[in-house]
Amino acid sequence: MTLSNWLSSLTIIVIYWGFAGALGHALYQFRQTNAANSNLLWISVSGMGFGLQTLALPFALWPHISTVVAAVLVGSIIALRPTTLPRLFWNYRFGMRYVSLTMVLAIVWSITQLPLPLALLISICALLAGLYTWQYSLEFD
């Protein structure tokens, strides 16, 4: 596996785990507050879109299956929030910093994989999102 393929795979996996975590957090919030049905609809539609989108992963069968299973596990763990895991995982600072570091991966990936105009566009957007989420995470220190 080349460095380029490794970086692409890592970026995809980190993004998938982040999205699965966001869905797990939304489900946790729904369970805690007995929110309106619109939240359940959002969780269902997003989860279905996430599930369908995983079919387009550019992996062979076993890496594909393991990525999907890992994403489901991440989402489930975050939705259930077991007390055996450190509280670090349940605070907003951790989530915001995870997003910031994911944006760094997206920048590196776009610069190494895409034509210059597209790489610049994605890098600028990812940089702004990464800076915003990192700055936002500082409010929770």
Brief write-up:
By secondary structure, the chain is an all-alpha fold. The chain has helices at residues 3-33, 37-54, 61-80, 92-113, 116-138. The chain has 2 domains: 1-86, no CATH class; 91-141.
Main attributes of the structure:
141 residues; mainly alpha; 2 domains
Structural class: mainly alpha
Envelope shape: globular
Spell the H/E element sequence: HHHHH
Helix content: over 70%
Question: In angstroms, what is the radius of gyration?
Answer: 16 Å
Mean pLDDT: 80
How many helices in DSSP terms?
A: 5
- Tell me the total number of β-strands: 0
How far the N terminus sits from the C terminus, by CA atoms, comes to 39 Å
**Which strand-content bin applies to the residues?**
under 5%
The description of the largest β-sheet is:
none
**Count of discrete domains:** 2
Task: Give the oligomeric state of the chains in this entry, treating copies of one chain as homo and distinct chains as hetero.
Answer: single chain
Unreliable stretches (pLDDT < 50, length at least 5) are none
